[in-house]
């Protein structure tokens, strides 16, 4: 995999662009032959990751988010890049799934879903500033038996 | 711009049931519309809500935060522990949305129905 990649979706980091981001995943996923279940997972995790970039990276200020999706064997690798402040959510605690809704804290579900629905999820600080989220889904390009 | 449509209906189970049918994607851009509509009907007196997700192709964690908030708005103080909510139930989620419901453990605390009449009569 080359170090320099073309990020073929570049949009303003705004919540109103989440649908365009999901459409990109659907379109490229179809081109790559990603199975339906994996595509649903990837649509979700990329939406969650970009939502975090908007809210916590850029803190709802102006910025650009770029997304690249490609095949690696039967896996799919997605990179999401921004120029926002360093944001590493690895330490965020999982939601209290075994607790009744009324006793749970709101939030924490997005990061949990990203970790749960991918096989690899890395949150990297770029040397020149900004962040890159690297998500890998194994066996995504296979027929679901 | 992403939008969702929310239609409000009424049905009679053992108690009056307000049905909120959502059409569109529930994401971070749209979840507040659902929460606001639920808040509006609750302030108008609704105590039992059936959330019809049949028209929702995509729902992310923001949608689940909205459902969580609606559940909190409706909760009765004497409901205990791990019992399912008697006030909020879900209808007809797609397979994809249903998988996320299970992943986040919402199915443990909210009843989920595929049939509208069965759902209404369960209240």
Question: What can you see in these coordinates?
Answer:
The complex is a heterodimer of chains A (145) and B (123). Chain A is built from 3 helices and 5 strands; from the N terminus they run βααββαββ. Chain A has a single domain, classed as Heat Shock Protein 90, CATH 3.30.565. Chain B has a single domain, classed as STAS domain (Transcription Regulator spoIIAA, 2-Layer Sandwich), CATH 3.30.750.24. Chain B is of the alpha/beta class and 123 residues long. In chain B, strands 1-2-3-4-5 form a 5-stranded mixed β-sheet. In chain B, a hairpin with a 3-residue loop joins strand 1 and strand 2. The termini of chain B are far apart. Chain B is globular and about 35 Å long. The chains are: A alpha+beta (145), B alpha/beta (123). Chains A and B meet through helix 1, helix 2 and helix 3 of A and helix 2 and helix 3 of B.
CATH superfamily grouping of chain B: STAS domain
At CATH level 2, the architecture of chain B is 2-Layer Sandwich
Order of helices and strands of chain A: EHHEEHEE
Instruction: Flag low-confidence runs of chain A.
Output: none
